[in-house]
User: Fold this.
Amino acid sequence: MGHSAALNFADGKTFFIDVQEQEFLLDAAVRQGITLPLDCREGVCATCQGRCDAGQYEQDYVDEDALTEQDLADRKILACQTRLKSNAAFYFDHASSFCQAGEALKIEAIVTDLEWVSDETVLLKLDASQHSAQIQFLAGQYARIYIPETHEYRAYSFAHAPQANNQLQFLIRYLPEGLMGRFLKSHCQIGQSIELEIPFGSFYLRENEAKRPRYFIAGGTGLSAFLSMLDQMPASDQIIHLYYAVRHEEHLCEQARIHSYTKKFSRFEYHPVISQPSEHWQGLKGYVQEHLETEQLHAHHFEMYVCGPPTLVEAIKSHLADHQIENGEFFSEKFIAAA
Ligand code: FES
Assistant:
């Protein structure tokens, strides 16, 4: 039985390949038209070097001049020596064009619902079941959605894990003057066809075998990426904190779904944080960094994922630096609401 491998590149493109039992990752990629850089094919030159971000693998011969002990501890791999033991995701620090990986997948999908989940957020639901194969992406990645009758697209994170029936969901911030906003408000019809290009982005869930505590910090519709990650993660007793920052409490959305994660994760804690709350708001106020438990962060090796506007990402980074919190893995995706 083979496995699936996601190959993610520095230009943000991801390609999925199948890797047969006992087949080397590099051979599988070349077989499917992705010519990863290579030279010796013997584990010596390190030309085919990458990093495994998720999944299990083993390597045959790795010369000590190709990868050091530390490299191996950091899950660096030589694709010509790597065999998969599970589905896995790999990162290669060069553009996909270096290996003639071609274009991202373009698909057509049908609008099935347009749900206003807050006064400034729409949950766009699409049926892409006419695409016969299961649409693959890594939890946290995004799609480019083309606005009909324009050549413009906007990027939105998937709001769910990959599903066999190819039903897609995206949380979209409604900007009345934006191209997408005008389309959604005035022109979008149930049953209409929309074109998407998928998948993109290097913001995705990493391997965490040790069940390190995970901190998910969303600004606005950055929540979408975390819904995808939380859907993707298996049930566990891992410590998970979800911080969700919005300006007003009426901008919070998908609350029932978020609360339902407490059934799946026994140590899931949800922290909505409102920067300009009404007088009735009883919860956390201000900014997320003011509510991070510095002592808790110092106490464990943790993973932190931040998805939101640049100001949020920078504020969290500064907070960690100011408090000399260095015992965590930090991943972020900055986005600006595009008009
Ligand atoms: Fe030389 Fe893989 S091609 S180490």
The chain has a mean pLDDT of 93. The CA atoms of residues 6 and 143 lie 15 Å apart. The pocket of FE2/S2 (inorganic) cluster is lined by residues 38-41, 43-48, 66, 78, 80 (CB under 6 Å).
